[in-house]
Specification:
mainly alpha; about 5% strand; 15 helices; hpI Integrase, Chain A; DNA polymerase, domain 1
């Protein structure tokens, strides 16, 4: 038997940090997954994580852990699959170092991701966007910050992690106004800013008066906002906006909905999906296809281009007896 601890440590220090040069977000996600896994195995076996060996982490145990995520922790299938990806990455690395456990490792790597229902994305209509932007209290510092943040999120479609990572120097106003960010895979991109958004952002930058390396949207103490903090602000302002815009009542609005709203606005304006993919920082155009399914107006236009409703209904009738026979099969 071989202890898992040395391999686990080398996986983070050698594989992720040096060989793959993984981003801090990737390392944190893998860390959280394996911490949950080791805690689960510790509860099941009573062994301390430092004394676990590979036989304690076989395919049966990994499957039980994945079920634990869904049943006990109430994680959705997407989260379950993300956790499985982290585990498989560790076992792929372990296969190079521990050929004596090849059979056990292969059984874990053979665990498939679970299929899930892909729901139509949620997005905000223009009246809902206006109500949301008007919700923050402009007499308070936090309200002016939140309005600038919401406007930037809706107009640029940045991910919440990208919003958190923005520094004051990343915002460029004036001619060729844009915001620069680093997205998934350490891909940097610049997103243009509309002229209508510049006055509000310029007023916020002036009030913020931060150094180039300071966070663009900080807390009262100057630290960066967390994911939970932004999600809470979005939910709070949505509840306020629902009083003026009833269509927001009951709609679950989270920071990623603002990204969907930006994509749908571009799509409905006739922007090509390849440009939208570049705008949002997608790895490929296929990631943008989900917005085509959500836009009912595109389907309505396609329906209008089909046979007019006044056309005489009919059915194909083959003239040849052999064709008629084949059609009847």
């Amino acid at each position: 038997m071989t202890l898992i601890a040395p391999t686990l440590q080398a996986f983070f220090t050698d594989r992720l940090a040096q060989q793959r040069q993984a981003s801090p977000r990737t390392i944190a996600a893998y860390r959280d997954t394996l911490r949950l896994l080791l805690s689960f195995v510790h509860q099941q076996t009573g062994k301390n994580p430092s004394r676990l060996d590979w036989d304690d982490l076989d395919a049966t145990t990994i499957t039980a852990f994945l079920n634990h995520l869904e049943v006990d922790r109430h994680n959705n299938v997407r989260t379950r699959n993300v956790r499985l990806t982290a585990i498989r990455s560790l076992y792929s690395y372990a296969a190079l170092l521990h050929p004596e456990h090849a059979m056990l490792i292969q059984r874990v790597l053979a665990i498939p991701p679970k299929r899930f229902t892909k729901r139509i994305v949620t997005f905000l209509t223009p009246p809902e966007v206006q109500a949301l932007l008007a919700a923050p209290d402009q007499t308070r510092w936090e309200g002016r910050r939140d309005r600038a943040l919401l406007l930037l999120a809706v107009q640029t479609g940045l991910r919440v992690s990208e919003l958190i990572g923005l520094d004051c120097a990343d915002l460029s106003l004036g001619v060729g106004a844009n915001v620069r960010c680093e997205g998934k895979g350490r891909k940097q991109r610049a997103v243009p800013l509309a002229a209508e958004a510049q006055p509000l952002l310029r007023a916020w930058v002036t009030e913020r008066a931060g150094r180039p390396t300071d966070p663009l949207f900080p807390t009262r103490t100057g630290r960066r906002l967390s994911r939970d903090a932004i999600a809470l602000r979005v939910a709070t302002h949505t509840a306020t906006a629902a009083r003026a815009c009833p269509t927001l009542t009951g709609k679950r609005v989270h920071p990623h909905v603002l990204r969907h709203t930006c994509a749908m606005t571009l799509l409905q304006a006739g922007v090509d999906t390849s440009v939208i993919a570049l705008w949002l920082g997608h790895a490929g155009v296929r990631s943008t296809d989900t917005y085509l399914h959500a836009d009912i107006s595109i389907k309505e236009k396609a329906l209008a281009m089909t046979t007019p409703a006044t056309a005489t209904p009919g059915r194909y009738r083959p003239t040849d007896k052999v064709l008629a026979f084949l059609e009847s099969l």
